[in-house]
C-alpha cells in the first residue's frame, strides 16, 4: 500500500510534466542562397563555436546542479509565475482546506473505531476535537461523506487553478521565445536547427510551466502532508514512531539514488526526442525531394536510428524506475508489517488502541506517499531548471541586427553605395574582400558573376539580412546600419531564386508583404497579378485568387509560383525591386511578358532595380552591369561596353552561355 502510493508520485517522463500533471494531462521574398537557407527552416541550424558574435544557442542539455547560478535560475523560473500569482495563491488556499480535511480524517476514523469498543471509552473531560467529530460522525455518517466531499472539491479547485496557471505560464513562455527566435539574425538560423528549437518550444516550455505550477502545488501538498502526518504519527504513538527511524533513511536514500538517475535519463530522453523531431521536421518538410531521390529507405533508417536512441534510454529509464518502485514496495511493506507487528504487541500490553494503530497506519501511508511526492517535486524542479536554461537562452538572445529602430528612410533619392565592403559567412572564407559600386536610383543595375561569386549575397546585404564585416553600405550617404531595417525592407520588393509561398490562398500570398494587408484593394491585387502575368492562369482556377496553394505552394507550377511571387513584390508598389533570377522559372513567353510589364513599371514609377541574373540575355537593357568575381568588382558598364572588353569576365560569361545555348539547341 505504501509503495503503491509512493509509485503514484512517479513522473510522466515522456512528456515531462510534473508528477501529477503528467498523470492527469498526460520572406516573403528573400533571394538566392539566403532564400534557400530560409526555406530550409526546419532544416539547417546548430551550435558550433560562435565566431564574430554569431548567436549560437547551445541546445544540448546538461543536468542542472543546485549551485549558486541554479538558485538564480530557480528565481527566474518562479518569476514566470508572477503574473498569475493570484491564481496560484488561490490554488494554495484550496490546498490548505483539502490538507486539513484529509489530515484530520485518519485520526477521527481511529477515534471512531475506538468509539465502537466499549472497553476503550475515553474518560469524560479528556476528549479532543477529533473525538467530538468522531462521535458526531458515528451519529451522522452522512456528515462524514459531506466533509470528505468538501475536501475533494477543494482538491478539484486546487488542480484547476494550478493547471490553468501552468498553461498560462507555458503560453507566455512560448510566445516570448517564438518572438525572440523570429527576430534573430540570419546568422542565427544558419547556425541553429529550427526543428530542435520547435521541440524546445513545445516540450521544454511544458516542463518549465508545470514545474512552477502543478509541481509547486504537488510539492506544497507533499510538504504539508509530510509534516502534518509526521507530527500526528508522533502525537498518536511515539512508541511506534521508532519504526519510522529505520524506514525513512532507506526510503530517502532510494529516492536520492534513483531520483538522480531518473533525472539523468529524463534529460537524455528529451534530447533524444528533440533529435528525432528534428529529423522528422526536416525530412517531411522536403518530402518531394526525398521521393524524387528515392530516399525513403534512407530516411526510414535515419528516423529509426533516432527512435532506437529513445528506446535505449527508455530501457535504462525503465530499469531505474523498476528498481526504485521495487525498493519502495519492499521498504513500504516491511515498514507496514513491522508497524502492525509491533503495534499489536503494544495493543496486547494495553499501551495502544486499535483505533490508534489504524490512524497510525493511515498516517504512515500518507507520509510515505508525501515523501515520495517531495522527491518527485525536486526531480521536476531540476527538470524545469534544465529545460528553462535553453528556453531562457533563446528568449534572452539579442540579435545583432534589430528589427526596428533607426532612421526611417523610405526611399533612395540618389544611389545605394557599396563602399569597400568585406564580408564572410560564419565559418567560411572571406567572400568579398573589397566590393565597391553604386546602384543609381531609378535605374536598373544588374549584378552578374560566376556561380557562387556572391550575387545573392549582395542582395542579402542590401536587405540588411547580414551586415558587412568591413566597409559600408550607404543609402544617399546614410549608413544602412543607422537605418530602421523594417522601414527599409518594407520599401523593397524582392523576388528570390526559389519563390516561397505559404500554404494559404493566392490572395493571402500576394498581400503577405503589405504592412496592412486588409487595406490592399482588389484592384491593386488584380493589377499586380496582371503585371506579373499571373492573371491569365489565376482566372482559369475555379477559386481564382482564393485557390489554396498547398505547403510551400506545392500545388502550383514553378513558373506560376514565380509569377505569384512577382505579384507579391509588386502589389505594394515598392520603390526598390530586387529580382534574383526572378524570371528563371518562366518560359520564354512568360519571361518576355514579365519583362515588358517590368519595363513599363520602371518607366512609370522610376523604381530602383537590382537584377541578379544568370541569363545574360535578360539584362541587355540594364543601365549598368556590375561583374563580380573572386570577391571583388572586376568590371562595370553597359552590356555593349562590357562585351567589348577583350578577355573580360563578362565577355567570357556571355561566350560560355552562347556555347551553352548552342549546345542546348543541338
Ligand atoms: N548562409 C550561408 N552560410 C554560409 N555560406 C553561404 C551562405 N549563403 C551562401 N553561402 C556561400 O557564399 C557563396 C556565395 O553564395 P551566393 O548565393 O551569394 O552566390 P551566387 O553568386 O548568388 O550563386 P548562384 O549564382 O549559384 O546562385 C557560396 O560559396 C555559398 O556557398
Bound small-molecule species = adenosine-5'-triphosphate
Structural class from helices and strands?
alpha/beta
Radius of gyration (Å)? 35 Å
User: Mean of the pLDDT scores?
Assistant: 76
Strand order of the largest sheet: 6-7-8-3-9-10
Assembly status? single chain
Q: Could you describe the largest sheet, including whether it forms a barrel?
A: 6 strands, mixed
Spans where pLDDT lies below 50 across 5 or more residues? 1-69, 659-666
The percent range for strand residues is 5-15%
Instruction: Report the helical percentage.
Output: 55-70%
CA(first)-CA(last) distance:
86 Å
> How many E-type strands?
10
Please, how many helices?
Answer: 23
Q: What overall form do the CA principal axes indicate?
A: elongated
What can you see in these coordinates?
The structure is a single chain. Helices cover 61% and strands 9% of the residues. The chain has 666 residues and is of the alpha/beta class. It has a six-stranded mixed beta sheet with strand order 6-7-8-3-9-10, with helices on both faces. Strand 9 and strand 10 form a beta hairpin. The longest helix is centred in the middle third of the chain and has 53 residues, at 296-348. The chain is elongated and about 120 Å long. Adenosine-5'-triphosphate is lined by residues 32-33, 37, 190, 425, 428, 431, 449, 451-457, 614. Keywords: ATP-binding, Membrane, Nucleotide-binding, Transmembrane, Transmembrane helix, Transport. The chain crosses the membrane at residues 88-105, 142-161, 243-261, 323-342, 362-382. This is ABC transporter ATP-binding protein.
